[in-house]
UniProtKB/TrEMBL annotation:
The keyword Aminoacyl-tRNA synthetase does not apply. GO terms for cellular component: membrane. This is Inorganic phosphate transporter. InterPro entries: Phos_transporter. Keywords: Membrane, Transmembrane, Transmembrane helix, Transport. It is found in: Membrane. It is a multi-pass membrane protein. Pfam families: PHO4. One of its GO terms (molecular function) is phosphate transmembrane transporter activity. The keyword DNA damage does not apply. One of its GO terms (biological process) is phosphate ion transmembrane transport. The chain crosses the membrane at residues 46-68, 80-102, 108-128, 140-162, 218-240, 260-287, 307-328.
Length: 332
């Protein structure tokens, strides 16, 4: 069997594994607030998230096309199949490591950094599409800042509207609303995160001379949506505990504000075909809401640990991608 075809099959397997891991690693963020406020039982929240992630993944492909072509040109990528496989191995390694320690790091940063590192190891900095890559980096950088500011504003407005309301009754009403916002946030997660694996598989098909355009094949979209949904069904309890409880004590009114903020920013990014870190966006939304509610009520120690992880993910995953490429290049 042709070695290029074997590599392509391996990439598809690893990309679906990445999407599966992304499901229980990142989707935990989407349902963390609703679980922590007991708006949804954990099992129900996971089922809801799995279904809505699948639906979201089947709705759009714009982000996948960005991943396929904006980091490096897949039609000119030297030793492209080995580059992509190395990137996947690096991103999966980092995702599993951070999941094990319950750190809500970004799968988006991991895979984008790993692709860049493997591309540079293969063909040097000249092979990077700097215009497209910088556009992606800007989206990854500014989206959590926007989420923090927007979360602060949204909750400030909510406080004014409900300032004279009975706190217990208001929270009870918002607990019901949280079911809807958790579904919405899971849907938007699927529209953005599941597409990253779609883009990677399409890159591999182009590198393997099995596909001639950046359009996403339908079977790729369906398989990635299923992998994301199955991964979500496994759950990510360590991440849920960190996001849902260790940042701040979340009440339903806080949860709804954070969910609406996160969903709006993630879907906005999907609409303009930009990948963002759902982990960063959701966590920053909660931080913004917490700062608006009571600055001292936020566990800034947890926030600092998350921020450090966010900062180091790109360079570490890039380094891992380069190392994985050098090792794989010995065998292929």
């Amino acid at each position: 069997m042709d070695i290029l075809f074997v590599l392509t099959i391996l990439i598809v397997i690893f990309a679906l594994a990445f999407d599966f891991i992304n499901g229980f690693h990142d989707t935990a963020n989407a349902i963390a607030t609703s679980v922590s406020t007991k708006a949804l039982k954990p099992r129900h929240a996971i089922i809801l998230a799995a279904v809505m992630n699948f639906v979201g993944a089947m709705t759009f492909t714009g982000v996948a096309k960005t991943i396929t072509s904006d980091i490096a040109d897949p039609f000119k990528l030297e030793n492209g199949s080995v580059v992509i496989l190395a990137a996947l191995i690096a991103a999966i390694t980092w995702n599993l490591l951070t999941w094990y320690y319950g750190i809500p790091s970004s799968s988006s940063h991991a895979i984008i950094g790993a692709i860049a590192g493997a591309v540079i190891a293969s063909a040097g900095f000249a092979a990077i599409n700097f215009k497209g890559f910088l556009k992606i980096l800007q989206a990854l950088l500014f989206s959590p800042i926007l989420a923090f500011v927007m979360g602060f504003i949204v909750y400030s407005i909510v406080k004014v509207i409900f300032r004279n309301s009975n706190l217990a009754k208001t929270n009870q009403r918002f607990r019901h609303i949280q079911i809807v916002t958790a579904a919405l946030q899971s849907y938007t997660h699927g529209t953005n995160d599941a597409q990253k694996a779609m883009g990677i598989i399409t890159m591999a098909l182009i590198a393997g001379n099995l596909h001639s355009s950046t359009d996403i094949p339908y079977w790729v979209q369906v398989s990635c949506a299923i992998a994301m949904g199955l991964g979500t069904s496994v759950g990510g309890w360590k991440i849920i505990k960190t996001v849902g409880a260790k940042i701040m004590k979340i009440r339903p009114v806080n949860g709804v504000s954070a969910d609406l903020t996160g969903a709006a920013i993630i879907f906005g990014a999907t609409f303009i075909h930009l990948p963002v870190s759902t982990t960063h966006v959701i966590s920053s939304s909660i931080l913004g809401v917490g700062a608006s509610h009571r600055v001292k009520g936020v566990n800034w120690g947890t926030a600092k640990r998350m921020l450090i992880t966010w900062v180091i993910t790109l360079p570490i995953s890039g380094t891992l991608g380069a190392i994985a490429y050098y090792i794989l290049n010995i065998f292929f």
